[in-house]
Design goal:
single chain, alpha/beta, nine-stranded mixed sheet, globular
Length: 204
């Protein structure tokens, strides 16, 4: 069963519809009781990190998701700005925001004058995962990550920006993409399909 997680934002309904258009029958993850029946979880959002964390905590989902990450029996795809939550913390304009710590590294501001514009950027993939293909992907709110993420790097935006940044990461059962899969054309939809076709606990 494929479950979509709401972070109390608005775009989860769009994700639900797009997954349906690919021929799957997803449902919303409404309580921790749904997790044992789940094979794939999708978290998506472009809201402020504190708002998204608050949304997950209000649903009491974080403790159960922690267990999923540890035991690897469910595959998790985190999309958009929501990918920031995977890291140990976020160095934001209002100070330090703790993340989940599921992945090593922390989110930092881009170097002055190196901030990539919103829009399409070239992504090169360094791992053959989910059938991902190099090309132009749509970024709504690009962000930079430092310190320790390199081993999890799946794809990098490096050609069209002065300061290369991780566009996609993969660690065991965690898959993260900070670009907008749903607005990245055929290649975005095929990457999503590749994730949904993967089998949990495959050992990669």
């Amino acid at each position: 069963m494929i479950r979509i997680v709401s972070t109390n934002g608005t775009n989860y309904t769009t994700v639900l519809r797009e997954v349906q258009l690919l021929g799957y029958k997803p449902k919303m993850l409404k309580s921790v009781k749904d997790v044992p029946k789940t094979t794939h979880i999708i978290l998506s959002g472009n809201d402020e990190p504190t708002f998204m964390l608050k949304g997950l905590k209000s649903q009491n989902l974080l403790p159960k998701l922690e267990k999923v990450v540890k035991h690897r029996n469910v595959l998790i795809l985190v999309m958009g700005r929501c990918m920031q939550l995977l890291y140990e913390g976020i160095d934001g304009p209002k100070g330090w925001i703790p993340g989940t710590g599921w992945l090593s590294g922390h989110v930092v501001p881009f170097a002055y004058g190196c901030e990539p514009a919103k829009g399409a950027h070239a992504v090169e993939f360094v791992k053959d995962v989910c059938g991902a293909s190099d090309g132009m992907y749509r970024f709504d709110m690009p962000f930079q990550v430092k310190d320790g993420y390199e081993g999890d790097l799946w794809g990098e935006a490096r050609l069209s920006v002065p300061d290369p940044f991780p566009a996609a990461v993969h660690h065991r059962n965690i898959y993260g993409v900070q670009f907008n899969l749903l607005r990245s054309g055929v290649q975005g939809r095929e990457l999503l399909r590749g994730f949904l076709n993967r089998v949990p606990d495959s050992g990669d």
